[in-house]
Design a protein that fits this description.
Elements lengths: L4 E6 L6 E7 L4 E6 L4 E6 L4 E6 L4 E6 L5 E6 L2 E6 L4 E6 L7 E9 L5 E7 L10 E6 L5 E8 L2 E6 L5 E6 L4 E8 L4 E10 L5 E7 L5 E6 L3 E5 L5 E6 L5 E7 L5 E6 L6 H6 L6 E5 L12 H8 L2
Antiparallel strand pairs: 1-24, 2-3, 3-4, 4-5, 6-7, 7-8, 8-9, 10-11, 11-12, 12-13, 14-15, 15-16, 16-17, 18-19, 19-20, 20-21, 22-23, 23-24
Length: 304
């Protein structure tokens, strides 16, 4: 595999950049700054960035058939969000458990469902983990598929769609599940890989060859694991807190990596001027197209 080369940096200075995705129909890359309640859209060809206010922290999202609407996992639940009007059309707000904080990482599967997991309000404080993994089905109702999670992260699927990857950042582990595309169910949970010392698995993406590219919070790297869980590449990121990975570009051979500056002391920020920016790498691999949410009658046939 050819080494990854840093070819661009989108300067945005995010507190907690996350959830990056490529939109092929207009050659744009999208992501969220969770803590600043912002949705970002960057026209990659013209190098123009638009910042959109959202009503509350946006943990993750997926595109829909509407060119102006995403399905969003806001802090409290699921909604359709029209980023032109700024209106959120709430779908469901699952009751939170004691200690459960907000929705975090998420992604759509190839059958058009939207998956998102929650995280603890204060992960690592000794309170039993109550984070969960939810699936928002086609009719706008969610179902629970995992529990006792500290920080939900790293949702992605193998190329054939029959293996789901899901990480609990606090444990340093990426898990692997058998996935039924037909039923949208999980089974046979096992540990796929563990982060090296100093790192925690954050957002991830699978390439066309089944390799899992995982942003490693605290380590300043994106690590690629082959389908057997072996490390096959380590990509240095000019920020110690990379948060999420997406493949994009005309040939899906670019890798976009978001990052965060939240929690870094001023002395560390002085040494990391790029913290919070989005990094673009030319890779020796190809990604897979992002999936879209096709539920709730394609959002009432994409509205009039």
């Amino acid at each position: 595999m050819k080494p990854c080369t840093l070819v661009d940096e989108i300067v945005v200075n995010n507190k907690l950049g996350e959830g990056v995705q490529w939109r092929p129909d207009n050659g744009s890359v999208w992501w969220t700054d969770i803590l600043d309640c912002k949705l970002y859209y960057h026209d990659f060809k013209n190098r123009q960035t638009q910042v959109i206010d959202v009503p509350e922290p946006l943990g993750s999202f997926a595109f829909t058939s509407s060119p102006t609407t995403i399905v969003a996992a806001f802090a409290r639940g699921f909604a359709f969000f029209n980023y032109q009007t700024g209106i959120a059309d709430w779908i469901e707000k699952p009751p939170m458990l004691p200690g459960e904080g907000r929705f975090n990482d998420g992604r759509a599967d190839r059958q058009g469902r939207f998956w998102s997991g929650t995280m603890m309000a204060e992960p690592g404080n000794g309170v039993p983990a109550t984070g969960r993994l939810f699936c928002l089905g086609p009719y706008g109702h969610s179902s629970q598929h995992e529990q006792a999670v500290n920080i939900s992260n790293g949702l992605c699927w193998s190329p054939d769609g029959r293996t789901l990857y899901f990480a609990d950042s606090l444990t340093g582990k990426i898990f692997q599940y058998d996935f039924s595309p037909e039923r949208g169910t999980l089974g046979n949970k096992r540990v796929f890989a563990k982060s090296p010392e100093g790192g925690a698995p954050d957002g991830a993406a699978v390439d066309a060859y089944g390799n899992v590219w995982s942003a490693q919070w605290g380590l300043g790297e994106v690590i690629a694991f082959n389908p057997d869980g072996d490390i096959i590449d380590r990509v240095s990121v000019p920020a110690s807190q990379p948060t999420c990975v997406a493949f994009g570009g005309d040939n899906l051979d670019l890798m976009f990596v978001t990052s965060a500056k939240d929690g870094l002391p001023e002395t560390r920020l002085a040494k990391e001027p790029s913290a919070g920016n989005v990094f673009v790498y030319k890779t020796g691999t190809r990604g897979l197209p992002e999936n879209t949410y096709s539920g709730v009658a394609a959002h009432k046939e994409s509205q009039p």
